[in-house]
């Protein structure tokens, strides 16, 4: 069990505990992984800042420069949901570097996870919905620039639709985007992924897993993939403040197992990112995010 786990202490930008975005979940997740013995049993890797050139493959150069200089227009900061101060800019760049590193490690080891990432609402021109840089799009486009023949799958199971990822990668035929989400949830205006599955409110474990299994069957026979990014957002949980679905902890575990099992059965390397999760109890939330790492460790070579 040598799952590579990518994380950095500066993933935590130090928001107040009552902020709408639960920033404390990042250190809490690492404490939880430590408590589970997963850090000791895994390969803990610290990422570097994503190169500016990589950020500019997925985002407008002007916006990237605004973030790095902490001069994002206030109208865009309002859409993101917090001011882009120095610690926020640093964490966004580190999280993108972390997903890029985890993807590289997944290509070597089969499975790797970033203990952040999944900022799927950030689009080409700007951030939105608590997302500053779209780490998965940055990593995918950087890897494609280095290895043009790669075929990449994005499996986005965060409860919100992956509009930013879909829009950035819309004209990139080497990446297939799949989003399964609560149809009535944010964002109001969805951007079509290659494959979208919008769910009714209140769906529970068994119905969810059945739909997911069928969707993965369809995607994995359609073509062969060299790498998959998996956004394992835990906001489909029934207790989540911003979700509208009704999955249990066991349901999330079964979901992660299903995704990893199907992809690994096809020898597709998997880069897991944590995505959204909005429980007021940070330790409960961290335990929920830790499920991805517990499951992924079982698939690590
Ligand atoms: Zn979400």
Order of helices and strands: EHHEHHHHEHEHEEHEHEH
Strand count: 8
User: Share of helix among residues?
Assistant: 40-55%
Distance between the termini: 6 Å
Largest sheet: 8 strands, parallel
Going across the major beta sheet, what is the strand order?
Answer: 2-1-3-8-7-4-5-6
Topology:
Layout: E1 4-6, H1 25-35, H2 38-41, E2 43-45, H3 52-58, H4 61-68, H5 74-80, H6 86-109, E3 111-114, H7 135-146, E4 152-156, H8 163-168, E5 175-182, E6 195-199, H9 205-222, E7 227-231, H10 249-265, E8 270-273, H11 282-297
Parallel strand pairs: 1-2, 1-3, 3-8, 4-5, 4-7, 5-6, 7-8
Helix pairs in contact: 1-11, 3-7, 6-7, 9-10, 10-11
The chain binds zinc ion.
Characterise the protein shown here.
The protein has 301 residues and is an alpha/beta fold. It is 43% helix and 12% strand. It contains eleven helices and eight strands. It has an eight-stranded parallel beta sheet, sandwiched between helices. Strand 7 (227-231), helix 10 (249-265) and strand 8 (270-273) form a beta-alpha-beta unit. Helix 10 packs parallel to helix 11 (282-297). The longest helix has 24 residues, at 86-109. The mean pLDDT is 97.
Could you write a compact summary of the structure shown?
With 301 residues, the chain is α/β, with parallel strands linked by helices.
């Amino acid at each position: 069990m040598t799952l590579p786990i990518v994380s950095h202490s500066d993933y935590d930008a130090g928001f107040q505990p009552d902020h709408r975005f639960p920033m404390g979940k990042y250190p809490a997740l690492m404490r939880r992984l430590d408590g589970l013995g997963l850090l000791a049993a895994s390969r803990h890797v610290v990422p570097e800042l994503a190169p500016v050139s990589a950020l500019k493959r997925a985002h407008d150069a002007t916006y990237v420069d605004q973030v790095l200089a902490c001069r994002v227009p206030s109208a865009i900061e309002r859409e993101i949901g917090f001011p882009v101060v120095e610690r926020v800019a640093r964490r966004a760049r580190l999280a993108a570097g972390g997903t890029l590193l985890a993807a590289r490690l997944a290509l070597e080891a089969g499975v790797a996870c970033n203990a952040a990432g999944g900022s799927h609402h950030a689009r080409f021109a700007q951030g939105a919905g608590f997302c500053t840089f779209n780490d998965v799009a940055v990593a995918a486009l950087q890897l494609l620039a280095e290895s043009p023949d790669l075929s990449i799958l994005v499996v986005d199971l965060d409860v919100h639709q992956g509009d930013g990822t879909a829009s950035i990668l819309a004209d990139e035929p080497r990446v297939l985007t799949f989003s399964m989400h609560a149809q009535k949830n944010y964002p109001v205006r969805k951007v079509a992924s290659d494959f979208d599955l919008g769910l009714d409110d209140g769906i529970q474990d068994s119905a969810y897993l059945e739909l997911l299994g069928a969707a993965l069957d369809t995607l994995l026979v359609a073509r062969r993939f060299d790498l998959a990014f998996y956004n394992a957002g835990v906001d489909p949980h029934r207790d989540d403040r911003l979700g509208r679905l009704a999955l249990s902890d066991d349901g999330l575990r079964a979901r992660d197992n299903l995704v990893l099992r199907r992809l690994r059965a096809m020898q597709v390397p998997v880069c897991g990112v944590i995505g959204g999760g909005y429980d007021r109890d940070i330790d409960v939330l961290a335990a929920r995010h830790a499920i991805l790492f517990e499951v992924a460790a079982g698939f690590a070579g």
